Amino acid sequence: MHALVSGASRGIGRATALELAERGARLTLVGRRSPALLGVLGELGGRGAQYSFVEADLADREAVARVGSELAQQESFDAIVHAAGIIERAPLVAMDPDQLRRQFEVNLFAPLALTRALLPGMLAQKKGRILFVSSISAHLPTATQIAYNSAKAGLTMAMRCLALELTDSGLMTAAVLPGAVDTDMLRGSPFPPRMTPEEVAKTLSFLVFDASLAHNGAALEMFGT
């Protein structure tokens, strides 16, 4: 099992990378180099996991295109987990254009661009799982989160459209829509944490390793306890 994971430096992405490695997956991690990301690489190395790291700022459209093209030529993947995400809270009237752009680039455009680049190889091998970490915010409006919520809503619908394109291909796509996860991104929101990143990671791991193709198009909401 060879899995690409974006956003592995923290939160759900980190927990997912560690969970997949625990189950024996070989990992390719995509994201920005940071002390947190280097810490995750150290954890993976300490566990004897097989991994590689590809540096890319997912807010940079040209960098995403370059990485997607390079990976498509060099690698084949059995699973993709798009876990990278950012949120910048502000009322729309106070949000500058760069804040809007960054949130759509990272939360929506980068996952679609990477999927588009890697999809031909997965279709050729007639197997694979493409998973998107969306959010319950895709369905629930929140003041000061107009860009984040809109991008996550778009991501969920993109997954559903892709599911129709993957019918009878041997591939499956799905999205996980967590509610209040105990991560850095939750800070500044009005919601208390209701689940851990590790709980979300186990659901993603199930979709990578165990779920049937009948889950194609599934948007799995997680409300926590």
Quick summary of this structure?
With 225 residues, the chain is α/β, with parallel strands linked by helices. It has helices at 11-22, 35-46, 61-74, 97-125, 146-165, 197-209; strands at residues 2-6, 26-31, 51-55, 79-82, 128-133, 171-178, 218-222.
Sum up the structure in keywords.
single chain, 225 residues, alpha/beta, Rossmann fold, 17% strand
Q: What portion of residues belong to β-strands?
A: 15-25%
CATH topology label: Rossmann fold
**Secondary structure tally, helices:** 6
What ranges have pLDDT less than 50 throughout 5 or more consecutive residues? Answer: none
CATH class: Alpha Beta
State the end-to-end CA separation: 32 Å
Q: Biggest β-sheet, characterized?
A: 7 strands, parallel
SS-based class:
alpha/beta
Q: Please give the share of residues in helix.
A: 40-55%
From the alpha carbons, calculate the radius of gyration and give it in angstroms. Answer: 16 Å
Number of strands: 7
Number of self-contained structural domains = 1
How confident overall, as mean pLDDT?
A: 94
What is the assigned CATH homologous superfamily? NAD(P)-binding Rossmann-like Domain
For the largest sheet, list the strands in their spatial order: 3-2-1-4-5-6-7
